[in-house]
Amino acid sequence: MKMKWKLLSLVSILTILVGAFWMTKTAKADQVTNYANTASITKSDGTPLSADSSIRYWEPLAVSNNITFPNEVSIKAGDTLTLKLPEQLRFTTALTFDVLHSNGQLAGKAVTDPVTQEVTVTFTDIFEKLPLDKEMSLNFNVQVNHDSLTTPGTLNFTYNGVAYTTTVEEKEVVPVSPAVYKTGYQDPNDPSIIHWQALINSKQAAIDNLTLTDVVGEGQEIVRDSLLAVRLQHIEGDDVDSLDEAASRPYAEDFSKNLSYQLNNTGSAVGFTYTFGNTTNNAIFISYSTRLTKSQSVGNDMTNTIAISGNNVNYSDTVGYARIESAYGKASSRQRRELTTVAETTTSASSTTTEASTTESSTAAETTTTTENSTTTEAATTTTGNASTTTEAGTTTTEEKTTSGGDQTTTTIEGPLTTNATTSSKETVKQKVKFVLPSTGEQAGLWLTAIGVVIVIVAGVYFYRTRR
Q1: How many separate domains does the chain show?
Q2: Backbone phi, psi, residue 426, to 5°
Q3: Torsion from C-alpha of 42, 217, 179, 285, nearest 10 degrees
Q4: Which CATH number fits the domain that encloses residue 232?
Q5: What residues pair up with 405 in beta bridges, in sequence order?
């Protein structure tokens, strides 16, 4: 008895587990490949990329993709679509952005990957609900991949089946201000992080009581652990010509821990100051990161200001800029229309008019017989829309004249015989098209679970009765 109970229990548990597995098992996501893409690539000023144009070494390019899907292509939640850049182009940072449907709902999430140079969209169920006239646009910025273009010159590549040719200019060498210089760039892996670098007193002039003040732009906060502020070693006759040189030159002093921070109302650092209490003839290098506190619009630039003052120098400041690469997407589609059938029926009574016959008799010597029949029929008219049928009978006139010898008999039967019948029926029937999906794993799982529950109940009753 115990063995039977254990066996029944085991079978029931296995049945329930299998059902639960099928219920939680999701449909395998597919890669959407059946689509048409009309793409374009333009320069930062909006002009199309062409063989007659040239682009700056670091110039961003705007890529626009307008994608349409055939109605017969089914796109379900979890399906993906991937676009790949040619090796001559690259994403500058990893971005995640929404693809919004025209009805305000989320159509998908898109991600750019600087490692694979791909953008991948993962769809929601919006195209299951609205499956007709499916469209989507993806817009993002790219740059020339300098790893594949070691020297400036002619750039040839193909994107979405279209060949592009342009000229890449020489890399710009931005002169460093002898007083203060600052710039920034977006992190390639985390778009919410901006890296800033500043160089002060690159000519290594002697400055008394040098005070520096740094203030980040709106929408940023300083990542304190990232901040490095140092005086570089003074090398006579060897000025610091670039940020790269500043980053590699040995330090004379690290004063990163001695800064006085300016805080906002949330307690986050948004600026700092520092004063050298004596004369310094060292170049000063500052490097740190800021975190964006809100999302930025496409192509927006973030700012960062640094200023210096001293006893023997004029106040000087500069604004550094960091381009924020962003992307956006849109989608649209519509639902299937309801099938509606309308019929209209109206019936009016028929009308028949018959004019009584007249018979006249007389006698004459002459016998003459004349028979004249005239029949006229008008064709029926039928109109279908709101269905209406009209039938009009013809008019029949029969005249018979008989003369026999001296007797004359005249018989006249005339009068329009007219029948009008108008039939119109009005009946409104609205039928909603119902789509029946095939049985899914979830339905199968429900059945298995139900069977398992029944087995458990039966086993319980059986066990209870045997115990009694």
Answers
A1: 4
A2: -125, 115
A3: -90
A4: 2.60.40.740
A5: none
73 and 96 inside one domain: yes
Residue 51 has a CB neighbour count (10 Å cut-off) of 12
Boundary of a domain, candidates 324, 359, 394 = 324
| 317 and 193 inside one domain | yes
**What CA–CA distance (Å, rounded) separates 21 from 449?**
10
Residue type for position 168: V
Residue 330, domain member (yes or no): no
Co-location of 318 and 347 in the same domain: no
* Residue ranges in 73-175 assigned as alpha helix (H): 126-129
- Hey, what are 78's tokens? 């979890």
**Do 204 and 317 share a structural domain?**
yes
Per-residue pLDDT of the chain (468 residues; tens, 9 = 90+): 555 555 556 555 665 655 555 544 445 789 999 999 999 999 988 899 888 889 998 889 999 999 999 999 999 999 999 999 999 999 998 988 999 999 999 999 999 999 999 999 999 999 999 999 999 999 999 999 988 876 778 889 999 999 999 999 887 766 666 788 999 999 988 888 999 999 999 999 999 999 999 999 988 999 999 999 999 999 999 999 889 899 999 999 999 999 999 999 999 999 999 999 888 999 999 999 999 987 665 557 889 999 999 888 888 888 898 888 878 899 999 987 655 544 444 444 444 333 433 333 333 333 333 344 443 334 444 333 443 333 343 443 444 443 334 444 444 444 444 434 333 333 333 444 344 334 444 444 556 566 766 676 766 666 666 655
C-alpha to C-alpha distance for 174 and 244, rounded to whole angstroms: 12
Residue in the structure block whose two tokens are 């192509």: 299
Strands annotated E in 169-219: 180-186, 193-200, 207-208, 211-216
User: Do 101 and 75 share a domain, yes or no?
Assistant: yes
Backbone angles phi, psi at 242, to 5 degrees: -155, 165
* Range(s) of the domain holding residue 395: 339-431
Q: Judge whether 107 lies within some domain.
A: yes
